[in-house]
Amino acid sequence: MFAAVARRGRTMQNPAARLSCRSLGDSTRGPPLSDLASNWKMASEFFTKGSVSYAEYKAQCVSLRLFAFAGTTTFCVLALINSPPKSSYWVRYSPSYLPSFLGGVVAPSTPPLFLNSKAEGTDVPAIASQLVTLRRLEGASSDDEE
Question: What is the structure's pLDDT at 4?
Answer without folding.
Answer: 66
